[in-house]
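COMPLEX REQUEST
Ligand: D-xylulose
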Amino acid sequence: MSMFKFSVGPWNVHEGADAFGPEVRSSISFDQKLRKFKEIGFTGIQFHDDDAVPDMNELSEDQIKSRARELKQFLDEQGLEAEFVAPRLWMDARTIDGGFTSNSSADREFAIWRALRSIDIAKELGSDRLVLWLAREGTLCSESKDPVLSLHRLREAINIMLAYDPQIRILIEPKPNEPIDRSFVPTVGHVLGFANGTQDPSRVGALLESAHAVLAGLEPSLEMAFCLAHGKLWGVHLNDQNGLRYDQDKSFGVENIRSAFNQLKVLIDHGYGSNGEYIGLDVKAMRTQSAAMSYAHLENSLRIVKLIESKVRRFDKDLVLKYQDARNYEAIEMYVMELLLGEQ
Ligand code: XUL
Ligand code: MN
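STATUS: Structure written out below.
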């Protein structure tokens, strides 16, 4: 049994298209995905704004809210909860060069409109969390944007969101690159520094994705620790990543099981989840897998989390304290390896 609640997004079951090839699996309807998520053991759903309200650009603000209310009823019927809503600002022709940091004022206005509608949707769905993955808030060409001005623009946009709804909390999910070359807010350290400059730092925190930390050359468990030490770890996207490559969204723990162990250890040791936080998974099926395997990466990741969680609970703190006092780090390392290899 896990002590955590788990969440997942509809985009985690997908057609398999990548930058170099067409789709390899047929689409599965939204309702079907949500029902299956519940069956597998998820109780929280992560939404992009247009997952929740498709074609929202064509709808009035009232229509958007009423569609969101219909979705809330469906979630209630299924016994599911919305964890967060995130504006999908990277797919629109108006935000090809970023939303909040675009040089075009019309693009920036559109991005803010989408963020405010995402807040409306979140409220209708009963969530106080807006996630900002700042996909294109950076550059492909360094000289194409003024980086300081861009950060001021990002801060202004976030201040507008904070003022729009006094309850909303903003979780910035940093990623150092992809689809842009260089992000203006690449790590959670940047997020927390940036949060301090906003009008209400108490409502701006972080969502840490394991793969994004690895892409920044950093250890995900320490990035989590950094946020936990500031009371700012409000969400996680557990997954895995084979070094400095494209964003892989592999099943949790399949590349680096010791890091996976340390991620769960820091979460458990420091009470992650006690304020209602979810363990989110942001994993994708391998492109080679058939439609019949559309959910295996999710089932596998959940099972891996639970298996590693049981290792963390068996971790012998007293023994390790003794080794720490004796500065016998070889013994600690071997103990951890034996624990992970089933010899403890
Ligand atoms: C992209 C990513 C997103 C966010 C939500 O790398 O992780 O799916 O989690 O917008
Ligand atoms: Mn993510």
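REMARKS: The mean pLDDT is 98. The first helix runs from residue 30 to 40.
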